[in-house]
Amino acid sequence: MFRKWLAIFKKDTLMDQAYQQSFEMLDITLEMFQKARESLRFTEDAEVDLNVRDMDLKVNKYEREVRRMVFKHLVVSGAETLPSGLALISIIIDIERLGDYAKNMVDLAINHPGKLTGGQFEQELCRIEEAVADNFVKTRKFFETGISEPARELLKEYNWVNPTCDKFMFNLLSEKDKDIRPSDAIALALYSRWLKRINSHLRNITTSVVNPFDRIGFEPKD
Q1: Which one of 22, 79, 103, 163 has the largest count of C-beta atoms within 10 Å of its C-beta?
Q2: In 3D, which of 22, 1, 15 has the Cα closest to residue 144?
Q3: Residue 209, C-beta contacts closer than 8 angstroms, at least 6 positions apart
């Protein structure tokens, strides 16, 4: 189905512009995530990268532009291309949310004293972070190519991330590491929750490659 949508995008100038702009939004949100992670986990407060906020405003602007282009396209073309237009709108909403969570991470870095570390859960936290970063890159690639089988494998590859984030939060709640200060525990809980939400929105985008419109955001059927 997604390959058919790609054909529609390439036939129409407005839809192709909207589709290409969604790539730029993904590139920007990936950079935002990387900068936000660096600010929160590896630098001191004075070194927080505030450019992430400006990048978030740019993503919001692009989202509005994509909506306008899709709307204009649908007004002219009618119902025939409605599913592809609605699918693209759904996808850019997920992309915009990626930017919001990256901005939240920067706000946390500003208000958290020093670098945020995971205590005895540090190794698990790093594993989650690396998975989300890799998911970002692969999601962008498969969204561009529209090839369903690698996208389906990506959904399987990182289906462990969300439950692992939940386990991470429950370990904090039960105070399994008594050496983690309350302020750090709060920050880690927020951070792990946002990593989970970023991963979820990336998965939503990937499902658009393998699912029909009505199942975007849901696990693909076997």
Answers
A1: 22
A2: 22
A3: 2, 142, 143, 146, 147, 148, 151
